[in-house]
Amino acid sequence: MRPPQKRQTRLASRTAGARLHFLPPHSPDFNPIERVFAKLKHPLRKAKERAADATWQRIGAILISFQPEECPNHFRYAGYGAVLNEKLQAWAMPRHRASYAVAT
Predict the structure, then answer these.
(1) Domain range for residue 68?
(2) Three-state secondary structure readout of the chain
(3) I want to staple 81 with a disulfide (CB 3.0 to 4.6 A). Which of 8, 43, 76, 92 is the partner?
(4) Does 6 map to a domain?
(5) pLDDT tens, residue by residue, 2-33
(6) Residue 95 domain-assigned?
């Protein structure tokens, strides 16, 4: 945000009775994808694949091991629990397994 926008946002939020909490420019603790990457990188490093095709195959196999129920938990852990609702979960879960099919 540019400085004039920041001032306008602060003024509007104070007028409405809200408080703003600014995050650092990069905060892995508040980014759900960072937890997913960490969970992906550990077994990937352990496998020690060196060929590009083998690495992509390994990534696909690791992603299949992720349980659909875990995804909303990563968002909740990062503090986004209030924005998750049953519609989002219902939409995301049935598509999970088919999205990461691995060719053998």
Answers:
(1) 29-104
(2) CCHHHHHHHHHHHHHHCCCCCCCCCCCHHHCHHHHHHHHHHHHHHHHCCCCHHHHHHHHHHHHHHCCCCHHHHHHHHCCCHHHCCHHHHHHHHHHHHHHCCCCC
(3) 76
(4) no
(5) 656 778 888 888 899 887 777 666 677 778 88
(6) yes
Length of the chain: 104
Instruction: Using a cut of 0.70, tell me whether the model's pTM lies above it.
Output: no
User: pLDDT (tens digit, 9 = 90+) per residue, 19-70?
Assistant: 777 766 667 777 888 888 988 999 999 999 999 999 999 999 998 988 888 8
* Alpha carbon distance 90, 71 (integer Å): 12
In this structure, is residue 58 part of a structural domain?
yes
Distance of alpha carbon 61 from alpha carbon 33, whole angstroms: 18
Contact 84, 75 (CB under 8 A): yes
